[in-house]
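FAQ: What does a ligand-bound record look like?

Like this one, built around adenosine monophosphate:
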Amino acid sequence: MNILLFGKPGAGKGTQATILAESLGVPTLATGDVLRNATREGTTLGKKAKEFMDRGDLVPDDVILGIVGEALARPEYARGAILDGVVRTVPQAEGLERVFKQMRRKLDAVLAFDIDNDEIVRRLSTRTVCNNCQTPYMGREPGEKCEKCGGTLMRRKDDEPAAIRNRLSVYESQTAPVFDWYKKNGTSLKTVKAIGSVAEVTRRALEALGRGR
Ligand code: AMP
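The answer part, i.e. the structure of the complex:
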């Protein structure tokens, strides 16, 4: 089963990806996490991506498609993936389709998380993330310990106000058109209201996938 999570930065894709992965029994693939790990480890990929990420710009399509093709070929993804933020431009949507075709797989559904910009700014400017396992937290301060792995919480550089503004404008110009692309291409595309509690959003997401309880 391959499910793509789509939506603005801060819509809660990462949080829901982890929960859906557990519930549906397939692992997550988040290009943002792959890139942040590469940056932290100082690999060639990380060095290439860092400037784009710190500004809140998109990393070039060929880099993203390279990461995705390589990852999906690994045995852990043989049964599918919850793809979190993997497609942010129309060329990436086209590229992912090519990758799936080559692998004789298909995208089962796209979940589009819907949320307005005021809520995004409020969330991102108050969130911290674990520097090790990348779990996001609301209402916790930098320097505190991660409950999952004991790592240290920090603020992401791209959660600073100027970068948040840029990420939202990049979303409007480059990512929003992906929604219409999937609509035109006959993929199962479901909108999920992304406000309310984490559990409420999960319930809506599972319902959209026909797995509601
Ligand atoms: P995220 O953790 O999903 O918010 O991603 C953090 C940053 O990684 C983004 O602001 C981009 O700079 C980069 N990134 C992650 N996924 C993609 C993608 N599919 N296309 C381009 N850039 C990406």
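Follow-up question: can I read anything off the structure? Yes, for example: Strands lie at 2-7, 28-30, 81-84, 109-114, 127-130, 136-138, 153-154, 189-193.
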